[in-house]
Amino acid sequence: MLNVDLHCHSTVSDGALAPAAVAARAKAGGVDVWALTDHDEIGGISEARDAARGLGMHYVTGVEISVTWAAHTIHIVGLNFDEKNEDLAGGLHQTRSGRERRAHEMAAQLAEVGVPDAFEGALRYVGNPDLISRTHFARFMVETGVCKDIQDVFSNYLTEGKPGYVPHRWAKLQDAVKWIRGAGGIAVVAHPGRYNLSDLEQDVFLAEFKRAGGTGVEVVTGSHTPEEFDIYARVARRHGLLASRGSDFHAPGESQTELGSLPPLPPNLMPVWHDWRV
Ligand code: AMP
Ligand code: MN
Ligand code: MN
Ligand code: MN
Q1: Given this structure, which CATH class describes domain 4-96+169-246?
Q2: How many helices (H) and strands (E) does the chain have?
Q3: How far apart are CA 271 and CA 171, in angstroms?
Q4: What's the whole-model pTM score?
């Protein structure tokens, strides 16, 4: 059976390894079909593709777009698109804008609760000045002993109602799906179990996602529990969505899930890769 991993990050967004090093780690984890899906960025694609090909993996272009839908932040993974498409590149550029200003506001809030110099601290972990993210702040706060690990950071800081949380307006759902589809790719809802949507909200969201042209949902992801693998397998079947699999790997020792290590998709699902020549 093919080992497919279609979700992970490099230093081009909030991962800790360069694209070629992520490729090597995927290969070491037994991955046969691989996509790098940096947040709102496709700048890692050429390095990732060259490395994957050198290692004999089937490479698929990828991205994870931040979307604001009904006051929820939702992530949409795009796969197998033409990375030279200008509307997609322009849309991602627009989605990235505002992160630096947001980061300054986050740092100001953290300073008020006794965590000084967080902007400069986070910046030391940033590989791409366009993409300063909460993960970089989290690494700084672990390094300086403010928190014991990344989970501890997101339990006490940087999330809604906690210090350092700055709401942000990301791309529109319809736009994100349109950019991906317009570049010939497929749009997949990332880790649907993470959004705290009610069943009704989730049905409304998935209906809008499909109407916009979205066709897939992550079922087996490092962000889901084994129970959620089955829950979202049922969701995929019920809504007629293709199923995806990806570790959401970010960094050695930080991600709970290694590249290529997840169980296979549950039965009776149509994988997102069903019509790829892999
Ligand atoms: P941002 O795009 O700046 O809002 O940062 C979002 C990133 O923060 C996600 O892609 C994750 O990598 C990380 N993140 C958010 N919530 C958590 C959490 N509870 N545990 C670990 N990482 C998280
Ligand atoms: Mn991330
Ligand atoms: Mn995500
Ligand atoms: Mn991700």
Answers
A1: alpha beta
A2: 10, 8
A3: 26
A4: 0.98
Residues 6 or more apart in contact with residue 278 via CB below 8 angstroms = 2, 4, 32, 33, 58
Cα(134) to ligand 1 centroid in Å equals 6
Q: Which CATH architecture has domain 99-156?
A: Orthogonal Bundle (1.10)
Separation of alpha carbons 170 and 151, rounded Å: 23
Ligand 2 centroid to Cα of residue 211, in Å, is 27
Percent of the chain's residues with pLDDT above 70 = 100
Q: What is the pLDDT of residues 198-210, one digit of tens each?
A: 999 999 999 999 9
Q: What is the Cα–Cα distance from 153 to 118, expressed in whole angstroms?
A: 13
Which two structure tokens, joined as six digits, stand for 37?
């899906």
CATH code 3.20.20.140 region(s) in the chain: 4-96+169-246
First-to-final CA distance of the chain:
11
Closest CA to 172 of 66, 44, 98, 49: 66
The residue contributing the CA closest to ligand 1 atom 12 is 135
Side chain identity at residue 177, one-letter code = V
C-alpha 139/C-alpha 17 separation (Å) is 14
What tokens does 278 get? 């892999």
Residue 206 to residues 76, 135, 214, 216, Cα–Cα distance (Å): 12, 27, 9, 10
